[in-house]
């Protein structure tokens, strides 16, 4: 790859970098919380990894037209490659968003403003056992 | 401007599936608002802003021609306008991603609390 393309790629990377950092932080948070929320962390981890890959594809192909034209590719070939990249990016984004929505709303207990009193059912079970033994 | 946007509509096809998922997400958040108000609020704000920036980015390509042809802006001014909109879009997207990460991991109760030492399912060990 010629160094002529580097400024465009670096500019794309600069715009993508904040989001990439957030995705990486999200993956790390998921790994740290994997013990408490295994399914959520797994889904979110896969989604954020897909988003990282998607963003990197976007950065690396930001000047795909220029590169392919310089390599004397035909316009129809350039159009086909661009189409495949666009379809792949849409597919990755779609899967990532579906996983994220499942992770956001799945495996979540209802948020309560007033905490419910904690009932220790083990005492009741023991009482039931004792009454059972007596009868 | 109108005809130019019409010519660009087919390129929106690639954004459409994700925009539909955004809509589904907004509906899901509104439906679950009573159960998880904070999470739903974050999701709705993030998805509305994501939808807005997606459409704005899509419209930015024909906008270049509109700015140069109809308003007579020079290349330098168009460059400044595009850089400003890109920076603004990046900042908005960053905020939205932070909201989404908070919505994924925030306000969750521990699902499988570890049992008290000395107890096993309510029975003394």
How would you describe what is shown here?
- The complex is a heterodimer of chains A (135) and B (125).
- With 135 residues, chain A is mostly helical.
- Chain A is built from 5 helices and no strands.
- Chain A has helices spanning 6-32, 38-60, 64-70, 75-105, 121-134.
- In chain A, helix 1 (6-32) packs antiparallel against helix 2 and helix 2 (38-60) runs antiparallel to helix 4 (75-105).
- The N and C termini of chain A lie far apart (86 Å).
- Residues 112-117 of chain A have low confidence and may be disordered.
- Chain B is mainly alpha-helical and 125 residues long.
- Chain B has 4 helices and 2 strands.
- Chain B has helices spanning 2-8, 16-31, 37-70, 75-105, and strands at 119-120, 123-124.
- A two-stranded antiparallel sheet of chain B has the order 1-2.
- The radius of gyration of chain B is 23 Å and the shape is elongated.
- The N and C termini of chain B lie far apart (77 Å).
- The A-B interface holds A 15, 18-19, 22-23, 25-26, 29-30, 33, 36-37, 40, 44, 86-87, 89-90, 93-94, 97-98, 100-101, 103-105, 107-111, 121-122, 125-126 and B 14-15, 17-18, 21-22, 24-25, 28-29, 32, 35-39, 43, 86-87, 90-91, 93-94, 97-98, 100-101, 103-105, 107-112, 119, 122-123.
């Amino acid at each position: 790859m010629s160094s002529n393309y580097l400024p465009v790629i670096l500019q794309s990377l600069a715009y993508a970098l904040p989001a990439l950092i957030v995705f990486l932080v999200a993956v790390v948070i998921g790994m740290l919380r994997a013990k408490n929320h295994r399914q959520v962390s797994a889904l979110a981890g896969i989604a954020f990894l897909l988003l990282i890959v998607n963003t990197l594809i976007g950065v690396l192909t930001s000047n795909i037209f220029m590169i392919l034209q310089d390599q004397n590719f035909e316009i129809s070939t350039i159009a086909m490659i661009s189409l495949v990249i666009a379809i792949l990016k849409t597919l990755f984004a779609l899967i990532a968003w579906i996983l994220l929505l499942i992770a956001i709303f799945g495996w979540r207990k209802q948020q309560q403003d007033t905490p419910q009193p904690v009932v220790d059912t083990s005492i009741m079970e023991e009482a039931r056992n004792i009454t059972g033994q007596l009868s | 401007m109108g005809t130019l946007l019409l010519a660009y509509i087919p390129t929106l096809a690639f954004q459409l599936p994700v925009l539909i998922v955004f809509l589904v997400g907004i509906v899901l958040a509104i439906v679950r608002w009573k159960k998880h108000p904070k999470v739903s609020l974050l999701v709705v704000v993030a998805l509305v802003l994501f939808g807005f920036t997606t459409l704005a980015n899509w419209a930015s390509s024909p906008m270049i021609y509109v700015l140069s042809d109809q308003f007579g802006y020079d290349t330098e001014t168009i460059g400044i306008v595009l850089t400003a909109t890109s920076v603004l879009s990046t900042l908005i997207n960053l905020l939205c991603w932070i909201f989404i990460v908070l919505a994924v991991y925030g306000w969750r109760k521990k699902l499988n609390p570890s049992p008290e030492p000395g107890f096993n399912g309510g029975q003394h060990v």
